[in-house]
């Protein structure tokens, strides 16, 4: 008997000889763990989707994740802390009661001249005939996020102006994010830039969720008879209304298998649709798609699909897709690090 018990217990690695009281303890621990898994499953499978259906606010939180103001402990009024020493922090009112925090970085060649200059100098500098980029960032975090600062530095080094807003509800901007609100903010900034930049090229660069804002904005402009000079779509997706398994912003769900069945389709109700694919069919601007092949959040097939739509709407000369090899490891946000990026951007700007 003793031998058999010993044999059975040796199934548990490292437990050769188990005394009766230990066994009882283990059984108790096991049932506690079991209870905990059951409770967690109930929470995940029932309560989370239920809350998502009844609480649009929670959906808003999940889509925009704007409350997570990463990086923490950055003073958004001091971009020079992030070695953006030729950058002005300013606030624009995109709509009554909505104040947007915006960074304006001038071309790097002007960094010395820019020291200690005021808002008026920066606004005046916009009129220096250098191309102007409006960078529309993705969800989560602020305009101070590393990859956003990274893009601003690349563009500034190329001799361009860069304006990076935090949409309503993000960073130190007031209000709450909605799809219409984000589009209004971007459109306002575009018109503001146009009013200050003379005949300079103005290019919109959207990243991730920001590509949805970018295409929305471009279409609004077309409806007003304005064609934006160029649009860059980095890490794009076709629409946020995807089945949950391919939904680009539901990574919190991807890790919880089986939850797709219970997941409602909240995006329509909350008007967070971002119909980029439909938008492309109405757009008239030259477009450059940038995408990493190893992007885990918005797989590259989204960009390929979007590229096809854009080419069939305009033509292959006005639309380009540049992808970055998986071996480079850029994932969703990292392609600003690519040593060829400046050349790629420059060529696109020259073609406009
Ligand atoms: C300011 O920024 C420019 C451009 O990035 C850099 O070359 C320069 O060293 C910086 N100067 C100071 C004092 O930090």
Automatic annotation (TrEMBL):
Pfam families for this protein: Abhydrolase_1
Gene: si:ch211-117n7.7
UniProt name for this protein: Monoacylglycerol lipase ABHD12-like
Keyword hit for Disulfide bond: no
One Gene Ontology cellular component annotation held by this UniProt entry: endoplasmic reticulum membrane
PANTHER family according to UniProt: ALPHA/BETA HYDROLASE DOMAIN-CONTAINING PROTEIN (PTHR12277), PROTEIN ABHD12B (PTHR12277:SF69)
Domain of life: Eukaryota
Keywords assigned: Membrane, Transmembrane, Transmembrane helix
SUPFAM superfamilies referenced in this protein's UniProt entry, alphabetically: alpha/beta-Hydrolases
UniProt keyword Disulfide bond present: no
InterPro entries membership: AB_hydrolase_1 (IPR000073), AB_hydrolase_fold (IPR029058)
GO biological process, one term: phosphatidylserine catabolic process
Spans traversing the lipid bilayer: 38-59
Taxonomy of the source species: Eukaryota, Metazoa, Chordata, Craniata, Vertebrata
A single GO molecular function term of this UniProt record: phosphatidylcholine lysophospholipase activity
Domain AB hydrolase-1: from-to ranges: 131-233
């Amino acid at each position: 008997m003793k031998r058999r018990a010993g044999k059975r217990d040796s199934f548990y690695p490292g437990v050769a000889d188990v005394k009766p009281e230990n066994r009882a303890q283990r059984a108790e621990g096991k049932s506690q763990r079991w209870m905990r898994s059951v409770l967690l499953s109930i929470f995940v499978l029932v309560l989370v989707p239920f809350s998502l259906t009844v609480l649009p606010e929670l959906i808003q939180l999940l889509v925009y994740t704007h409350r997570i103001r990463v990086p923490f402990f950055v003073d958004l009024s001091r971009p020079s802390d992030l070695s953006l020493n030729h950058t002005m922090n300013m606030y624009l009112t995109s709509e009554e009661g909505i104040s947007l925090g915006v960074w304006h970085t001038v071309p790097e060649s002007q960094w010395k001249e820019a020291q200690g200059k005021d808002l008026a100098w920066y606004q005046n500098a916009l009129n220096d005939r250098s191309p102007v980029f409006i960078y529309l960032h993705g969800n989560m975090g602020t305009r101070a996020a590393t990859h956003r600062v990274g893009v601003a530095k690349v563009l500034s080094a190329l001799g361009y102006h860069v304006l990076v807003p935090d949409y309503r509800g993000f960073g130190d901007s007031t209000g709450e994010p909605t799809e219409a609100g984000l589009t209004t903010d971007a459109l306002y900034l575009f018109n503001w830039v146009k009013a200050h930049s003379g005949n300079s090229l103005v290019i919109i660069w959207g990243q991730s969720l920001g590509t949805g804002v970018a295409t929305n904005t471009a279409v609004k402009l077309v409806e007003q008879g304005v064609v934006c000079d160029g649009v860059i779509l980095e890490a794009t997706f076709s629409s946020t209304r995807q089945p949950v398994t391919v939904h680009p912003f539901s990574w919190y769900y991807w890790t919880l298998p089986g939850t797709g069945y219970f997941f409602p389709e909240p995006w329509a109700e909350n008007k967070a649709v971002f119909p980029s694919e439909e938008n492309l069919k109405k757009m008239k601007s030259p477009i450059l798609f940038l995408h990493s092949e190893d992007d885990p959040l918005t797989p590259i097939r989204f960009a390929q699909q979007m590229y096809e739509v854009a080419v069939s709407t305009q033509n292959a000369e006005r639309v380009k897709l540049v992808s970055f090899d998986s071996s480079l490891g850029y994932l969703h946000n990292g392609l600003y690090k690519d040593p060829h990026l400046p050349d790629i951007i420059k060529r696109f700007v020259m073609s406009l």
